[in-house]
């Protein structure tokens, strides 16, 4: 795409640093909070749940571009103050949506990131204004925007001077009525292929229903998203907007714990803080490591068996090769502060088992194996 001069620069990968949070790095960044800021106490409760879940950024809308003119339009400046205060008290960053010059000017020096919503993705004057500020911009994909149009919207912001753009997939309009929008997870990979910008996912606006948020969030992380923007309300039943798609704080925290596991399984980091401290969390980590150990051992045994096919029965055991392997692994163990004795013992068993299995596959029937191999090999 020739017009993606800045957003499509393949020579880089943008990691956007805000405070001590990096978007686009190894860590999955969790952003949570209500659709609309309603009160100080509501924001305090939301911020506490975000922090306890390992989230880094508190969200909350104060200028709401609502579908109906009669819906709640947001608290404006009063709401920004609730948002900022709650975030600061919990050590979080905060983000809010801007809709025009006036709203941008009102919040730009107060919040840490700005959001441009789906309905304004092609509000080119607003994009140019966002290009003039020194704050990261979360740019949501428009309801019916192609990925190219979305990236060109990012290009507008960048061409105007602000390179700190974070793309946010939030579902697109399709013929399917069972969800509010259709979450386009392939957009994560495509946007990452075409640009160097971080890509996050908002499953809440995509689904429009609370029951799908957890699975979509996990899928988003698995598909390569750099972060999640999730709606959470201390009391969704009484939310002034988007209640049906908002998680409760408890649901949000449970999801965060699951995300830790998904993130690790795709080579990313996410630390749900409460989890880190308890026994269950540590056991989760061990479970993951064990899974990898067994998976790699299985792969190793497949190779051992291929090697076995190339050998004569009386030449299966190769003491020299076993010694070479240990000569590499013992210093590695020392370097990693792992007992060399532990490694030697494990490998003596690995070698023994490998040799046995090679012999076993060369023979027909276990009786012959028993006579050649004292350990049995069953
Ligand atoms: C796989 C082989 O066969 C045996 C098993 C080994 C292993 O498990 O690494 C090493 C040497 C042999 O005793 C081999 O020769 O490489």
TrEMBL record:
Signal peptide: none
InterPro entries per record: Aldolase_TIM, Chorismate_II_sf, Class-I_DAHP_synthase, CM_dom_sf, CM_II_prokaryot, DAHP1/KDSA, DAHP_syn_2
Name of the protein this chain belongs to: Phospho-2-dehydro-3-deoxyheptonate aldolase
SUPFAM superfamilies for this protein: Aldolase (SSF51569), Chorismate mutase II (SSF48600)
The entry's keywords: Transferase
Native source organism of the sequence: Desulfosporosinus acididurans
PROSITE patterns assigned: CHORISMATE_MUT_2
Primary gene name: aroF_3
GO terms under biological process: aromatic amino acid family biosynthetic process; chorismate metabolic process
Isomerase keyword on record: no
EC nos: 2.5.1.54
Coiled coil (UniProt feature): none
GO molecular function ontology, one term from the record: chorismate mutase activity
Domain Chorismate mutase: 273-362
């Amino acid at each position: 795409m020739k017009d993606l001069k800045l957003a499509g620069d393949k020579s880089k990968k943008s990691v956007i640093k805000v405070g001590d949070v990096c978007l686009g790095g190894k860590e999955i960044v969790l952003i949570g909070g209500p659709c609309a800021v309603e009160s100080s106490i509501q924001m305090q409760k939301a911020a506490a749940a975000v922090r306890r879940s390992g989230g880094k950024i508190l969200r909350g809308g104060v200028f709401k571009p609502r579908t109906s003119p009669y819906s709640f339009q947001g608290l404006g400046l009063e709401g920004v103050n609730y948002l900022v205060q709650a975030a600061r008290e919990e050590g979080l960053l905060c983000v809010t949506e801007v809709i025009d010059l006036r709203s941008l000017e009102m919040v730009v020096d107060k919040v840490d990131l700005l959001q441009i919503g789906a309905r304004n993705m092609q509000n080119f004057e607003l994009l140019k204004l966002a290009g003039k500020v020194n704050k990261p911009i979360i740019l949501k994909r428009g309801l019916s925007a192609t990925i190219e149009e979305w990236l060109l919207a990012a290009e507008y912001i960048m061409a105007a001077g602000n390179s700190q753009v974070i793309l946010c997939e939030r579902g697109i309009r399709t013929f399917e009525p069972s969800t509010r929008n259709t979450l386009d997870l392939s957009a994560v990979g495509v946007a990452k292929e075409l640009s160097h910008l971080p890509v996050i996912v908002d499953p809440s606006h995509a689904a429009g229903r609370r029951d799908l948020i957890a699975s979509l969030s996990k899928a988003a992380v698995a598909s390569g998203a750099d972060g999640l923007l999730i709606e959470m309300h201390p009391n969704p039943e009484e939310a002034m907007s988007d209640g049906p798609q908002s998680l409760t704080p408890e649901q949000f925290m449970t999801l965060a714990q699951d995300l830790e596991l998904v993130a690790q399984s795709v080579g990313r980091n996410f630390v749900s803080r409460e989890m880190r401290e308890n026994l269950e969390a540590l056991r989760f980590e061990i479970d993951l490591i064990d899974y990898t150990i067994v998976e790699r051992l299985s792969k190793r045994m497949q190779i051992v068996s291929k090697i076995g096919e190339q050998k004569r029965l009386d030449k299966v055991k190769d003491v020299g090769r076993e010694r070479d392997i240990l000569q590499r692994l013992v210093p590695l163990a020392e370097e990693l502060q792992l007992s060399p004795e532990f490694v030697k013992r494990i490998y003596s068993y690995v070698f023994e088992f490998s040799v046995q299995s090679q012999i076993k596959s060369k023979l027909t029937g276990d009786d012959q194996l028993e006579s050649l191999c004292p350990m049995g090999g069953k």
